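note to self — DONT lose this again. spent like an hour looking for the file last time. sequence + predicted structure for the chain T wanted, 340 res
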Amino acid sequence: MLLCRRLDSQSASMNGTPTFHSCGFRGCSTLRVALFGQSDTVTSANIGLAAKLWENAFMPSSGDKPDEVFVKLFVSAYENFAWKDSQICWLDKHVDGAVEALVTRPDGEAMAIEHTLIEPFVGNKRDFAAFEQSLEALRADQSLAVQNAGIEVYIPAGTMDGQKPAKRLKIVESVRSWIAANRLQLREGQHRYECQVPGEPRITLTVKFKPWRNANSPPGILVVGRQQIVNDLDKVVEKALRRKLPKLVNTRAARHILLLEREDFTFDPELIFAEIERQRPSFPSLNGVDEIWEVETVGYKSIGYVGFDMAVGSNGPATMCFQNGVLTGHSGKDGIPYPM
């Protein structure tokens, strides 16, 4: 509400009649007119007021959302710091259907940036949340481990998704019972086993068992995880392009950047780029995207690592790497590292 009130205050100061109102940001007509004029068209020339109200430092703060952190890091070192003094306006926070960020340099040149997460399969994020919540206690139960051995139990992805809490609990208890009954007679290597769930379809578990023959090996461990069983990257990419391309290419700016985040090791980023090229005939608006970058965030939560790699088809192998918000290396579109 504060931003909206400040906006009204500045608008009212022009006619000497201060007026204030409070509302949600999305769809606010006062905000919309101030940002875009009566036409609702995003341009580099009419974001001056917005930039003043929402000027951002580039270094991430604890209150930033992850996607905002990634955009700030990207802009801070993009093209060998050519955009480091720019102002970032987070348009999608205030106007439905707007691009995520409009970045404007002091010379007035603007760059539109849209970010999206590429999931390993449709519904991965929702499935992951259900899985983590359901299996927390099972993972912590190391009484199921075998001394001097490692056990990895993989449950098919999607098993927990959409299930009611009582059914999730039944599945977890069935897996726990199966591990307890079979842990001492597992075959070495990777094998599949059927797990019975009372009143429900059986679950096929993929289990890896590896004895540790070194006398100095640590105590046994048990790892429980998900295993992807469906390959529908084509649907994931299609959904992302359908949702993100229109607002990106319809934003008036000198260049348009699409950031594709990968937070899971399940698939190689080249598969994403290849799938985009395969679907290019169905999305002619891809021609309005100047550059596509992969944002590597697999280690972001654990070690603070974020990596940016430009799709080769976008011009060349430019890269940027950050550790805990600090640039650790970057190269140009010719692949030659910049001096640090």
